[in-house]
Specification:
The chain is of the alpha+beta class. It contains 4 helices and 13 strands.
């Protein structure tokens, strides 16, 4: 059990786990039990209340009342109080503050727009009766992108990073009504008329990429720590449609380590 030994303004670690004894064997405390004496102490000084008056007194931060109480838990001394305060602060940081910061990052904390790059291609409307490709990635360049991909047939391929850091994939099908609602949201929010790139004056952080193709036409938008309300509403509708399709109960499959992040390579290439 750990205590604090204090003598001549010098603080040293002090270990003792033995009860107070009624008599001594006449030996110096430092000459028996490996710097211990009968009390089990590591230093050759007697405890407060020890019968061996020839040895200088050991000044502990807590009173010696039969069992030396641990400064880590039961000690009423200054060291014990400071330890509890620090431990309580660390618990508050880990269980309260960090989750809030992570939630703000996951929900894309708003930063001012620093610059945007206009799109040189003319906007176009997606024809739901013709083949098209929709790809949407959310995450970061450092940790990877969780992606959603689907086309006219409604088959959605999903990739996400699990809480253990492993990539997972799943496939789900959206009906034609869900696809139509997603496309109508894009039209209402003027997604196809947005600029090609949006940048906040922030390093790292979160990045989103939207890539839509139909025939020879293509639209790519890169969001770097700045997320206009239009793309936020589209993301909300996407998540709602996937939830309605039962994605919460779906079983995800692990992605082999050698194939990790292959699903996002095309998204990063399309914005270059």
């Amino acid at each position: 059990m750990r205590e604090v030994y204090r003598r001549s303004n010098l603080i040293l670690p002090h270990y003792c786990n033995q009860k107070k004894v009624e008599r001594t064997d006449g030996l110096n405390h430092g000459q028996c039990r490996t710097f211990g004496g009968e009390h089990g102490c590591r230093y050759p000084f007697r405890h407060r209340g020890c019968e061996d008056e020839e040895q200088p007194q050991c000044l502990h931060s807590c009173r010696f009342d039969g069992n030396l109480r641990s400064a880590r838990g039961k000690s009423s001394g200054t060291f014990g109080k400071k330890y509890k305060l620090v431990r309580g602060s660390m618990k508050l940081l880990l269980h309260c503050i960090l989750p809030v910061l992570m939630l703000l990052t996951a929900n894309c904390q708003e930063f001012p727009l620093a610059r945007s790059i206009p799109d040189k291609t003319a906007p176009f409307a997606i024809d739901p009766s013709a083949e098209f490709h929709f790809a949407f990635g959310r995450g970061s360049g450092m940790d990877g992108l969780d992606t959603i991909r689907f086309g006219r047939n409604g088959i959605v391929t999903l990739h996400r990073k699990s809480s253990k850091g492993r990539w997972q994939t799943a496939t789900i099908t959206l009906d034609s009504k869900s696809i139509r609602r997603i496309l109508e949201t894009m039209q209402a929010e003027h997604i196809m008329a947005m600029s090609a790139k949006y940048h906040a004056d922030v390093s790292d952080g979160s990045q989103w990429i939207l890539w839509i193709t139909q025939g020879a036409r293509s639209k790519t938008i890169y969001f770097d720590n700045y997320f206009p309300q239009g793309i936020r509403r589209l993301a909300k509708v996407l998540d709602a449609e996937l939830a309605a399709a039962g994605i919460a109960a779906f079983k995800w499959k692990g992605v082999p380590m050698k194939e990790s992040r292959l699903h996002e390579e095309a998204l990063w290439k399309c914005i270059k």
